[in-house]
Amino acid sequence: MAKRDYYEILGVDSNVGDSDLKKAYRKQAMKYHPDRNPGDTDAEASFKEVNEAYEILKDPQKRSAYDQYGHAAFEQGGAGGGAGFGGMGGGFSDIFEDLFGDFMGGQPGGGRSGGGRGSDLRYNLEISLEEAFNGKQMEIKIPTTVECESCDGSGAEAGSVPVTCNTCQGHGKVRAQQGFFTIERTCPSCQGQGKIIENACKSCRGEGRTSKEKTLSVNIPAGVDDGNRIRLSGEGEAGMRGGPSGDLYIFLSVKDHRIFQRDGQNIHCRVPIPVSVAALGGDIEVPTLDGARAKVAITAGTQSGRKFRLRSKGMPIMNSHSHGDMYIHTIVETPVNLTKRQKELLREFESEGKGAHSPESEGFFSRVKDFLADLKD
Question: Which among 143, 135, 148 has a CA at the least distance from the CA of 213?
Fold first, then answer.
């Protein structure tokens, strides 16, 4: 079954601000919370749906990807599966934290014990149609954060180590009773890390990571199309204090070509042909995306717009050894700058034929004649 629109799930429009988005989320989460709907499987499913929608829309990067590509931006290990742009993560304890963290002095969306996971990154890469056809190994440069070399990602100055947080005893979370709820929230002392840094590293100021431009090698497979994405696991921002790195998502776009037009895995090419070849027939050569030339046999009497098919001369089909097809669209070119003799020959041809060589014109004007006769009746 097709997934519902995230904005529809939360009851907001696509222009909603962060504050109103959060209010709508809290309202829906309270409405469908399992403790308020014991044994109601539909309410539980709606509760998970609300959580998933908010996890995507509250993050500007994820929201931008969703607005542009919809659910397709998170397929193959996306939002519903705990990967993609950070995934769902968190379980019900994060919902408690988002709903009630403000009342307890905590921060919504806090982390767990240990280093926090780094953010996922997006990189937009434009390639040519030839590169999409052949595939290519490319190098890209991205500004990101990497593990601090001075402290090996610990965040502590050399010679010192982080100590266990006394508030949460190293768990990164604290619990409190709120009516009939037991609320678990991020520890306010260590911000969910479970440890306190008493002597912070001067290079990274205790974060365990520093800013750096990184060069990466990317393999562009043959046959990619607009909107395809490539995931480089662990190549996003470094995590806080030794936490796991995020992922890098490369979104591809293919530039328009000056000769060929792409339609899925098929290639189209408009080719002008002389009127003599169109009338008498003959062979023409056309370029193909692999850099070669293909011979096309033009049959006598070819009109503008006729298509000729070249099998397996289109785009490679990803994850297979097959190719799409190439279609040649003929454009019969009217001769210009004729000499006096050429004009005389054309007039002789016209007088000899008396319309017999132009069946489409004859048919059209015959229909016009019938149409005008019907108007007089």
Answer: 143
Q: How far apart are CA 76 and CA 319, in angstroms?
A: 15
165 annotated binding-site participant: yes
Distances (CA, A) of 17 to 21, 35, 59, 344: 6, 29, 12, 74
The residue among 193 and 28 whose pLDDT is bigger is 28
> Is 148 a known ligand-binding residue?
yes
pLDDT of 13 higher than 50: yes
Rounded average pLDDT over 356-360: 68
pLDDT (tens digit per residue) in 240-284? 777 889 999 999 999 999 999 999 999 999 999 999 999 999 999
Q: Per-residue pLDDT averaged across 320-337, rounded?
A: 94
Domain range list for the chain:
1-89, 110-255, 257-336, 342-370
168 is an annotated ligand-binding site residue: yes
Q: Is 201 annotated as a binding residue?
A: yes
Task: Establish whether 269 is an annotated binding residue.
Answer: no
- In this chain, the answer to whether the domains covering 1-89 and 110-255 adopt an identical fold is no
Angle between helices 18-32 and 91-104 (to 10 degrees): 120
Q: What is the pLDDT of residue 188?
A: 84
Cβ-contact 178, 103 below 8 angstroms: yes
**What span, in angstroms and rounded, lies between the C-alpha atoms of 75 and 168?**
37
pLDDT band at 125 (very low <50, low <70, confident <90, very high): very high
CATH superfamily, region 1-89: DnaJ domain (1.10.287.110)
CATH hierarchy code of domain 110-255: 2.60.260.20
CATH superfamily of 257-336: Urease metallochaperone UreE, N-terminal domain (2.60.260.20)
